[in-house]
């Protein structure tokens, strides 16, 4: 039981009407592990994250299994999901900036999160909130608590939302693009805090980001999503040293590096939207290794050691 | 995608000099009702000049006043003091001249979702400015919009769709097309690619470079990714606590940063290589585990 993963996702599929956002995605997150999810815009990262905690719009169809500490969350009651969210799984969503209530102060919003999940007096809750904001490198926590969202800079708002996810001490934290509005010095501190929480209490973190620098610096394992599938999943070192999937390599090459003056290298072509069931490799049209076989069926999951990939013509032959 | 956009009638589209002198702004925060208000000096005597057709990058700490500078330049926030000049003409006043020059400065925000009205179709969003400023006869607006959509790399059928039907990268293209519609000579780009994945980021930056080459646009790019700024800008300025603390050519600033904050910015840049991992910094105000003792019990 103690060896069981904190979170185990199996065969997760999500559809919005005819649009397939996620197709049989599987991965697991251990206690104390930082699990990265990367991938192009539209790859299904946010949809998967929302699916895990049951926060998809009613129009969405969810299939597969999500086990959190052994408990199945797919099909769990709304009441159960509500109590899991916030107290056991803290989440920060990408569009969270707009999700802050514009007519209530940051302090009121943070205190509410804490008081819903734990029995704490308002004054203590406010003190805890101030302490957390200070840890997130907010220079003037008291002022920030008294501010309304529009009175804060983009990066301050982003940290207020992160504080709301951390304040109830959850066992799993899902952070979707949480540092994109922060300068790198603050970003570093915020990530350190997340990692610190993870190390100190054995919490798991799912870090969704498009910043491969952040992934390289923080993640233990990484899943690369493309067109709603896990194109590749590996240990962070293996992924950067020996990418297996051509999409992973293209992604690594498109990343701007400091001190490098080469022109920007976007991946040619644009991301696709999947309709109905996926019957081919979603990357086929943009791939330089494509063969007819890639278009005739979705490549199966290939497992080597602790890594997986879905490519008929992988780049490296695993050792 | 590189088809030239015919300029049509209206003022010629070339870069202008953007000059900012002594811009200063403070805000009052907190609640009046509870009597605990304070003033924050968001921007403190900021001055710079951007030559026509060039790009200045503005980087800096979160909350250092970058967006406030952008908002003052685009007349979304009124400065307490200072001037904003386009080709030597002040754009802050109410006169016709000021408004004419103000139109030449347009802004693209980080978050295209909240800056595009969700109830308008893309065609209407892009055409709005052309109509408001009467830049061409009404009958010609649709053709101009089609041209812009094409120039910004959007599919032709985009015009009849709503913003939420597009990905983040495409929405940013819509915002750029919308800004270009009013024939600006200066574009203020407030973190235009921060929310986008690396590949889409590169696509948008390439588009911006092409547009600059085609129209000689002057850019003020606010960003926090030095790797982007380095490659995209002719000059950079580093802001901290409302002031510009360092400026120069990007390569020079990178090689020889003088201000401690600039040094921190370069050092904190996440190296995309797991073998060069920096240890978790220990200088946090309290250990991560320390804040758990809020006196609550598990619910
Ligand atoms: N509410 C929705 N209704 C319809 N389609 C949706 C909805 N939410 C997401 N989608 C579609 O599902 C797919 C996956 O979207 P998702 O938001 O998960 O991408 P993402 O990987 O998070 O991208 P980004 O990096 O831009 O945030 C996309 O094709 C998107 O258009
Ligand atoms: N409307 C407002 N009312 C009160 N304070 C404000 C307002 N707008 C900005 N501020 C304050 O001014 C300071 C500078 O904010 P600004 O948004 O310019 O920062 P920024 O450099 O753009 O930061 P970021 O990188 O996080 O976007 C912050 O302390 C912020 O709280
Ligand atoms: Mg997303
Ligand atoms: Mg800003």
Approximate helicity band of chain B: 25-40%
Number of domains of chain A: 1
Can you say what the CATH homologous superfamily of chain A is?
P-loop containing nucleotide triphosphate hydrolases
Indicate the low-confidence ranges of chain B by residue numbers: 1-12, 282-299
Radius of gyration of chain A, rounded?
20 Å
Query: How many strands, which pairing sense, and closed or not: the largest β-sheet of chain B?
Result: 6 strands, mixed
* Largest sheet strand order of chain A: 6-7-8-3-9-10-13-12
What's the end-to-end separation of chain B, in Å? 57 Å
What structural category characterises the helix and strand content of chain B? alpha/beta
| Structural class label of chain A | alpha/beta
Approximately how much beta-strand content do the residues of chain B carry? 15-25%
Shape of chain B: globular
- Count of helical segments of chain B? 10
- Element order, helices and strands of chain B? EEEHEEHEHHHHEHEHEEHH
Give the biggest beta sheet of chain A.
8 strands, mixed
Mean pLDDT of chain B: 83
Strand content of chain A: 15-25%
Assign the CATH class of chain A: Alpha Beta
Helix and strand succession of chain A? EEEHEEHEHHHHHEHEHEEHHEHEE
Largest interface: A-B, 84 and 74 residues
Concise structural overview:
The complex is a heterodimer of chains A (319) and B (299). Chain A has 319 residues and is α/β, with parallel strands linked by helices.
């Amino acid at each position: 039981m103690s060896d069981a993963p904190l979170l185990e996702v199996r065969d997760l599929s999500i559809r919005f009407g005819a649009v397939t956002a996620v197709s049989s995605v599987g991965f697991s997150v251990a206690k104390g592990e930082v699990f990265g999810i990367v991938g192009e815009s539209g790859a299904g990262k946010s949809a998967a994250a929302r699916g895990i905690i049951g926060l998809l719009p009613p129009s969405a169809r969810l299939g597969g299994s999500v086990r959190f500490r052994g408990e199945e969350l797919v099909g769990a009651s709304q009441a159960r999901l509500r109590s899991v969210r916030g107290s056991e799984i803290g989440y920060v969503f990408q569009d969270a900036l707009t999700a802050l209530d514009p007519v209530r102060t940051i302090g009121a919003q943070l205190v509410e999160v804490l008081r819903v999940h734990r029995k704490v007096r308002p004054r203590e809750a406010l003190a805890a909130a101030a302490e957390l904001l200070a840890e997130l490198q907010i220079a003037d926590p008291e002022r920030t608590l008294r501010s309304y969202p529009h009175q804060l800079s983009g990066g301050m708002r982003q940290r207020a939302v992160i504080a709301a996810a951390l304040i109830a001490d959850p066992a799993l934290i899902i952070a979707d693009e949480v540092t994109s509005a922060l300068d790198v010095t603050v970003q570093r501190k915020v990530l350190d805090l997340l990692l610190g929480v993870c190390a100190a209490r054995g919490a798991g973190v799912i870090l969704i980001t498009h910043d491969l620098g952040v992934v390289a610096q923080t993640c233990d394992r990484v899943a690369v999503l493309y067109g709603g599938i896990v194109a590749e999943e590996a240990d962070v070192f293996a992924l950067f040293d020996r990418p297996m999937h051509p999409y992973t390599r293209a992604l690594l090459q498109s990343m701007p590096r400091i001190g490098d003056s080469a022109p920007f290298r976007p991946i040619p072509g644009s991301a696709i939207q999947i309709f109905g069931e996926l019957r081919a490799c979603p990357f086929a049209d943009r791939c330089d290794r494509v063969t007819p076989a890639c278009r005739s069926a979705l490549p199966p999951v290939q497992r080597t050691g602790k890594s997986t990939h879905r490519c008929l013509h992988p780049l490296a032959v695993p050792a | 995608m590189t088809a030239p956009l015919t300029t049509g009638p209206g003022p010629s589209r070339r870069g202008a000099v953007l000059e900012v002198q002594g811009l200063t702004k403070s805000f009052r925060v907190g609640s009046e009702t509870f009597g605990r208000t304070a003033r924050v000096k968001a921007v403190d005597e900021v001055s710079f000049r951007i030559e026509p057709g060039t790009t200045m990058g503005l980087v800096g700490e979160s909350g250092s006043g970058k967006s406030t500078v952008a908002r003052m330049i685009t007349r979304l926030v009124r400065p307490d003091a200072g001037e904003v000049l386009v080709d030597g003409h002040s754009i802050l006043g109410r006169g016709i001249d000021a408004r004419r020059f103000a139109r030449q400065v347009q802004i693209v925000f980080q978050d295209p979702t909240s800056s595009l009205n969700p109830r308008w179709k893309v065609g209407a969003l892009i055409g709005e400015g052309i109509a408001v400023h009467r830049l061409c006869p009404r009958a010609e607006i649709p053709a101009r919009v089609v041209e812009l959509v094409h120039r910004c790399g959007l599919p032709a059928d985009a015009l009849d769709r709503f913003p939420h039907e597009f990905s983040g990268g495409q929405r940013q293209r819509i915002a750029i097309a919308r800004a270009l519609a009013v024939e600006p000579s200066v574009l203020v780009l407030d973190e235009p690619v921060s929310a986008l994945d690396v590949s889409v980021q590169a696509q948008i930056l390439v588009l911006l470079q092409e547009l600059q080459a085609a129209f000689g646009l002057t850019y003020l790019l606010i960003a926090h990714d030095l790797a982007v700024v380095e490659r995209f800008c002719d000059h950079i300025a580093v802001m901290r606590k409302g002031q510009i603390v360092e400026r120069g050519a990007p390569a020079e600033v990178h090689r020889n940063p003088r201000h401690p904050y600039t040094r921190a910015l370069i050092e904190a840049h996440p190296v995309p290589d797991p073998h060069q991992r920096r240890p978790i910094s220990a200088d946090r105000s309290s250990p991560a585990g320390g804040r758990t003792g809020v006196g609550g019990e598990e619910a």
